Prior knowledge:
Layout: H1 4-15, H2 21-28, H3 33-47, E1 51-61, H4 90-102, E2 107-112, H5 119-135, E3 140-144, H6 150-158, E4 161-165, H7 184-196, E5 200-202, E6 205-207, H8 213-226, E7 231-235, H9 252-265, E8 271-273, E9 294-296, E10 298-300, E11 303-306, H10 308-317, E12 321-322
Parallel strand pairs: 1-2, 1-9, 1-12, 2-3, 3-4, 4-5, 6-7, 7-8, 8-9
Antiparallel strand pairs: 10-11
Helix pairs in contact: 1-3, 2-8, 3-9, 4-5, 8-9
Amino acid sequence: MKNIVEELKEKIIACDYKVNFEEALSLYSFEDAGQLFSAANQIRMAKCPRETSVCSIINAKQGNCGEDCKYCAQSCRWKTPCKPSGLIGLEEAVEKCRKALDFKVPRLSLVTAGRALIGKDFLHLLECFRAISKQCPGLKTCASLGIISYQQMLDLKAAGVVRYHHNLETSREFFPNICTTHTWQERMDTLLAARKAGLELCCGGIIGLGESRSDRIKLALELRSIDPESIPINVLSPIKGTPLENAEALGKEEILRTIAVFRFILPHSTLRMAAGRKSLGANGRDAFLSGANALISGDLLTVSGTTNEDDLAMLKELGFAIQDLVR
Length: 327
């Protein structure tokens, strides 16, 4: 008799079976972790292209955020090592995008701190995106500017932006435990506005916030309902001065189990390893043998990341091709 891992793996590969909440919980607690990881990797190989997607980010405005996200170093409510900086200049933005192309990173996102980028700051960033589109042909640009309006989404698309990033972070039920200055639904509405405007979506979450396995499954099921083109998986890197600075770190096996369960729930999706990948050791290599198939390369806002050269070498060793590689 087949166990639940083998049974669900075969059903997903054969007919795109949709795993439900109870089945996902059973997968999470399956005794043989190695078999779970291997099955998730087989689903990835069967349902996703061989190519992996590599992207990077630019911290276009840092700190002084008025929101109270308990994990975030950029909130002005916490005393953290994060030093605020003004909005990035046009020439600097273009130069960083050129460097991304030099490092063979084909997709880059401009990220700003704060609830929403509005007014003159938003207009300035539109100019940056227009300049990048003209001066960095072949580079796909993304934006992560907070809870902005549908009209702003249309403006971004007109300026050459391809994809909008905005994480749901965790389940709807757990979200009030990590943020009270805006709601989970506001985040979802932002994503729906981006989709309506014709932008691709990059949306995932953070694990290790104190949430339960059930919360992670609920997040994955919500993500399945909106089908983002990219799903970043972040592992909390506790920042001194934030309310979560002493949060208990997730073990390697728990992180890999989460990636594997996400792959069972989201068989066709791009699961992108983001912050906290280094906590797995070996550049996060095992994540790509447990269902993940993409990554963010380079530094990640307020925590250090990995080098582009090391990432590309690791992916090549694992047999991945690089999607949209500029040659």
